[in-house]
Amino acid sequence: DVFLLDINLSEERTGTDLLHLLRNQKGMANTPAVALTAYAMPGDREDFLEAGFDQYVSKPFTRADLTEAIEDALDAR
Description:
Structural class: alpha/beta
Shape: globular
Radius of gyration: 12 Å
Helix content: 25-40%
Number of strands: 3
Number of helices: 3
Largest sheet: 3 strands, parallel
Order of helices and strands: EHEHEH
């Protein structure tokens, strides 16, 4: 299992907020998570990894980019 979370969900909740809610659910604390986002400025990747994501993919991305991020996230856990 892996969480694929877009960062811009709504004005009230972000993908980072959702990740924290999911990780607090029983049995999900160690589920790997990949941030999918249009945020691609210097430092954004580090910010999302620090917030708890295992991998980061900026849009637009290719199937290969996504596959690699998922595989890396699964390997890390």
